[in-house]
Each structure stands twice: as structure tokens, then as C-alpha cells.
Write a structure and sequence with these properties.
CATH superfamily of the largest domain: Aldolase class I
CATH class of the largest domain: Alpha Beta
CATH architecture of the largest domain: Alpha-Beta Barrel
Strand content: 15-25%
Number of strands: 16
Structural class: alpha/beta
Radius of gyration: 34 Å
Number of helices: 17
Strand order of the largest sheet: 1-2-3-4-5-6-7-8
Shape: elongated
Length: 531
């Protein structure tokens, strides 16, 4: 049987759940099963009924729920795994009774190392058990799948013999597992091609592939098997599974779609459900998806390098071979960091409602680069705070060029500031305070030559995390007006990863506002240049 359709057999609820720490309760399995049905998988392997009463019950509940909620549409096949024993097959058949389309999946190990050390059976014994088990499973269900476990390390002639016996006994699907992720892509593709060529009846069966990722080749081997004629892929969401995991459903499906020029094959997957399903499985199992995971990782469609961002802004396909919306990931993300360029910053600011050009863009870009050098990434909230304090905050007459603070548990904090005044000259002043902020504020007052009263001070984190941007807000009053009937307050704010720097800049901004409102000639303009 060789068509242009690849059946997607999802084993997240069986092989995926076998990942250490990934076990799911029955309600959690039902949530995932519903998501898999929405995703459009052809087969859901719901569990291993003989493993425990709870697993058997979970398989029954998945079979009942998926079948009942399918409406007028055809529900996925619900499969249960069984060893080549009557007890396992009976448990599987009983668990699958509620399924509209049940499948019993029988397996037995066939490789020399498994026969000798695990089963302690001869080739003849394994062959007989495989034949008998498939025949019995065929009595309990119309749809039977057979897997020769560790097929990748099984002698080819014996593998062909076992597969042929399973087909003769009634197996309609023959699955070829690379159980320990041992084979290489060309090698595994050759195994599938030779099975189709050498095994009688193989052309009337669906050949399936089930690859593990011990050498990081699960997806590559799966695609090699499909290219060689396999028409079912056994996969898991996020690639979870025993040891290093299984072939990732999302990667296999999107490889077939993105490189349809090479495969000319289709699946029934609704790809816009890939990211939502990935997130659900991650949440239910507690297994986080690595940021750089293909297709569903949070960085899969994120770009920080300035060259990449510029290319994406000009034409999406310059650096994206898959559109993020096609897999349910929303839109591309231009991550603003130290590698980002001016074009990306301007584009993001425009999206946030701030059109900057010329000198304003230059100032914003300089402050952005300064911030990005100290933070891992710059968020939208960081940008808004930066723009608000650096672009829309009135300039001068004084600027804070440098702040140096020394603080310890054994001596009073000391702050040293370097400032430029309205005459363009610089002055360095130092002051001591009961705390680092008081010391900084006193040093700034000394440099400005004006005494102020702080009437309100507030400091908060703009975003979460240890490298969060701190936003400082300061209200000051002219020290000479403290006795006035209606004293006036002046506000300044600033943002910086260093909260002391943010506070000092906010204080300078408030003083600038105060001095700019003073009568002409009341602003100190003569500042001696520091030696």
C-alpha cells in the first residue's frame, strides 16, 4: 500500500507518558486526547491497558470521550499497546470497547540482544509468539498493528520472516521501531525499502515507523523511512518519550509540508493547532519546551540579530521558511537585544505608537543600546519607559554624565557626580548621605548649585526578573519656596536597570523642570570645569 497520504500516529499518551516525571492523570489524558483530536491525528495510542488498572481505565475513558465527541465526523483510531500475550491482548480489547475505531497494537522484541538477554527465547519461539499473538488480536479487533521491537538491530532475514508471519496472521499495519535510536537515516531508509521489496504482502500493508532520539536522529530517521515508502509516522508532541524521546510530531509534519517539493505527501494535521497542543502537553506533563525547539519553541520565530531583523522586516521569507501563524504561533517576534539594529527598534516603536526619526531616533537608539548591553532582552514595557523618560522628558539645562556611589556596612555612603551645565562646562561634586540615594541627591544639588526638597519618591520594576528595568519617579520642591503659601512641585522620572542611576536621572529631570520654570536669570549658568 503506497499512497500520497501519511497517517500520523500519536503516542504522547503512551510512549510520551513513559518519560520520567511525565505521567498524567485520567482527566489530564482526556484534555490531551481532545487536543489531539482537534489537531487531526489519525491514531491516538491511548496507553498500555495491561500495565495497571488505572491505565486500562484511562484508555477506556479516552476511547469513550473521543468517540462520543467526534459528532458527525470520523473520530481518530484509538489504539492500545499489548505484549504478545493473551492477557495483554484481552486487557487491550476490553479497554477499547467504547472506541468507534479500535486498534490493538501488538509487539515483541526481535533483535538478538533482546531475544537473548530480555526474552530468553530462540528465533523460532519469537516467530511463533508473534504469529499466535497477532492471530488472537485479530479475533478481538478488526484493526491490528504489529511491531518487531528493536527492528533496527534485528537480522534482516529474520525481520522479514517475522513481518511476513504477522501479515499472514492478520496485521494490517506493520510498524518498524528504531527502539534505541541506533540507526542512521540512510540505514533506516534502507530497512524500510528492503521490507517493501523483500516481504510478501508488504505492498498491501501500511508500513509505519517509530523512531527514538538517542542520537538526535529521530525526525531524520522518520523522514527517511517515509521517503522510502512508510505511510504512518509514530510521533509525540514536543518529542517527549523514553530516554531522549521520540520523533517530534510538529517537526515531522512541518518538514513534510515545508518541503513538499521533495516529499509530495500530505497529512490530515490542522497545523494551526500545533503550538496550542504543544503548550498543553508541556503544562500537563510539567516538561518545559526548550526555547530553541523547532516549530514550537518560544524562540522558533524570534529574531534578535540586526541583520536578520532587517531582512524579516523587508521580506518574511528571508529568515523564515514557515510562517508562525501557520503553526498557531501568532506573528514573528523581533527580540530587541544588543544585536538588534536601528531598523528593528524604529519598527517596534512604530507598532507601539511612537514615530521617531532623526535626532529623536538617534537618542532612543543610543539609550536602547545602553540598556540592551545590560539586560538580556528589552521588552515592550522597557521600551515605553525608555521612550517616555528619554525622548519626551524635557532636555537640560543640566545633564548627568556619570554617577559613582560607594556604599558599605561600615561607613556612610558617598556619591560622586559629573554633570554638564547650560554653559557646556562640566563639574564634579561629591557628597555623603545616610543612604546611597541621599548621597547622590546631595551631590547633584551641589553640582547644580540649587537646594531642593524631595516631596515624593517612588521606585518600581518595569518588568519581572533580576535584570528588570527600574523606573524611578521623583517630585521636588524648590528649597527657597518651602515656606510659600502654595508651594509648587516638579516631577521627573527615568528608567534604567541600575535603580540608583534611574533615581539620580529622575532627580535631575525634576530639577530641570523646576529651573526651567524659574524667572529668567535665576538658573545657575557658571560651573567651573573639574580638574
Amino acid at each position: 500500500m503506497h499512497s500520497d497520504y501519511v497517517h500520523i500516529f500519536d503516542t504522547t499518551l503512551r510512549d510520551g507518558e513513559q518519560s520520567p516525571g511525565a505521567s498524567m492523570t485520567t482527566p489530564e489524558k482526556l484534555r490531551v486526547a481532545r487536543a489531539l483530536a482537534r489537531l487531526g491525528v489519525d491514531v491516538i495510542e491511548a496507553g498500555f491497558p495491561a500495565a495497571s488498572p488505572d491505565d486500562k481505565n484511562a484508555v477506556s475513558e479516552v476511547a469513550r470521550t473521543v468517540s462520543d465527541e467526534s459528532g458527525d465526523g470520523e473520530p481518530p483510531v484509538i489504539a492500545g499497546l499489548a505484549r504478545a500475550t493473551r492477557g495483554d491482548i484481552d486487557a487491550c480489547a476490553e479497554a477499547l470497547e467504547p472506541a468507534t475505531r479500535p486498534r490493538i497494537h501488538v509487539f515483541i522484541a526481535t533483535s538478538p540482544i533482546h531475544r537473548e538477554h530480555k526474552l530468553r527465547l530462540s528465533r523460532e519461539d519469537v516467530l511463533a509468539r508473534a504469529r499466535e499473538a497477532v492471530a488472537y488480536a485479530r479475533e478481538r479487533a478488526d484493526d491490528v498493528e504489529f511491531s518487531p521491537e528493536d527492528a533496527g538491530r534485528t537480522e534482516p532475514e529474520f525481520l522479514y520472516e517475522v513481518i511476513e508471519a504477522a501479515i499472514e496472521a492478520g496485521a494490517g499495519v506493520i510498524n518498524i521501531p528504531d527502539t534505541v535510536g541506533y540507526t542512521l537515516p540512510d540505514e533506516f531508509g534502507g530497512i524500510i525499502a528492503n521490507i517493501r521489496k523483500e516481504v510478501s504482502g508488504a505492498d498491501q500493508s501500511i508500513i509505519s515507523v517509530h523512531c527514538h532520539d538517542d542520537l538526535g536522529l529521530a525526525v531524520a530517521n522518520t523522514l527517511a523511512g517515509i521517503r522510502a515508502g512508510a505511510r504512518q509516522a509514530e510521533v509525540t508532541i514536543n518529542g517527549i518519550g523514553e530516554r531522549a524521546g521520540n520523533a517530534s510530531l510538529e517537526e515531522v509534519v512541518m518538514a513534510l509540508r515545508a518541503r513538499n517539493d521533495q516529499f509530495h505527501l500530505a497529512t490530515g494535521i490542522e497545523t494551526t493547532e500545533l503550538v496550542p497542543t504543544s503548550r498543553l502537553v508541556s503544562q500537563v506533563t510539567g516538561m518545559s519546551v526548550q526555547p530553541n525547539k523547532a516549530i514550537v519553541g518560544r524562540n522558533a520565530f524570534a529574531h534578535e540579530a540586526g541583520i536578520h531583523q532587517d531582512g524579516i522586516l523587508k521580506h518574511q521569507e528571508t529568515y523564515e521558511i514557515i510562517s508562525p501563524d501557520s503553526v498557531g504561533a501568532g506573528s514573528s517576534k523581533l527580540v530587541l537585544g544588543k544585536h538588534s539594529g536601528r531598523h528593528a527598534l524604529r519598527s517596534r516603536l512604530t507598532q507601539l505608537g511612537h514615530e521617531l526619526d532623526g535626532e529623536e531616533l538617534d537618542r532612543a537608539f543610543a539609550r536602547f543600546k545602553d540598556l540592551a548591553d545590560r539586560a538580556k532582552a528589552v521588552t515592550d514595557r522597557d521600551l515605553l519607559a525608555l521612550i517616555d523618560t528619554e525622548i519626551y522628558e524635557p532636555e537640560g539645562p543640566f545633564t548627568l554624565d556619570n554617577l559613582h556611589i560607594v556604599s558599605s556596612t561600615s561607613s556612610p555612603p558617598t556619591a560622586t557626580v559629573t554633570m554638564t551645565g547650560p554653559d557646556g562646562k562640566r563639574r564634579v561634586e561629591a557628597a555623603v548621605g545616610s543612604g546611597p540615594l541621599e548621597a547622590a541627591f546631595r551631590a547633584i544639588e551641589a553640582a547644580v548649585g540649587h537646594r531642593c526638597e524631595v516631596t515624593r519618591f517612588q521606585l518600581e520594576a518595569v518588568t519581572e526578573g533580576r535584570d528588570a528595568l527600574g523606573e524611578a519617579s521623583v517630585r521636588v520642591r524648590d528649597g527657597r519656596d518651602s515656606e510659600a503659601a502654595l508651594p509648587r512641585d516638579f516631577h521627573g522620572h527615568s528608567a534604567d536597570p541600575d535603580v540608583l542611576v534611574a533615581s539620580a536621572r529622575a532627580y535631575v529631570a525634576a530639577i530641570n523642570r523646576m529651573l526651567q520654570s524659574a524667572p529668567e536669570g535665576d538658573i545657575p549658568v557658571s560651573m567651573e570645569t573639574a580638574s
